[in-house]
Amino acid sequence: MTYTGDVQVGGPADVRELAKLTIFKLAVGPYDNNAYLLRCVETGDGLLIDAAAEADRLLALISDQPISSVVTTHQHGDHWQALEQVVKVTGAQVLVHPLDAAALPLPADRTVEHGDRITVGVITLEVIHLRGHTPGAIALLYDGGDSGLHLFTGDSLFPGGVGNTWNDPERFTQLYTDVVERVFDRLPDETWIYPGHGKDTTLGAERPSLQEWKERGW
What we know:
alpha/beta; 7-stranded mixed beta sheet; 5 helices; 30% strand
């Protein structure tokens, strides 16, 4: 089966098998959140991005395999409703940016900032701080070499625009600037984008619209 990234709440995960990393995308909860389980092929270790909702379905996806950490991309409650239960069952560490840590329902085991590295087995993910949707919103970048670049953006970048900044010009300018400078100016068009809700996209598909986003202000 070819990975598409098109998933529905209540439906199965979509699975992308890279050379060194397997990516599982699952839609959960009343806000159609995406949760991503990353599993290192070599070691079997796992990492969950956003324990958003439906702990039972997330735990079924994790199964009896280990996960060493759960990364929360930002502080909004729809992205951590299942965090306590998943951590209780798996013993995984809680990772989040320090500016968003206080909103989580349990303390962070580790806070991560721009440029930090997170490991899952022998795989390394780079933390990219994208300010604006929330103060501590982060994206995670996996450089798979021949398997390409894979960016998990939370609610900071979607098909069709940056994340919600609630008509606040300063917040929009901050998020737009971070997304342009830290993502589009740095990474190639082939970079695959895995957002916090909805379908996937690529930087190449979105790049032609950057000026339009800037002019409309959202």
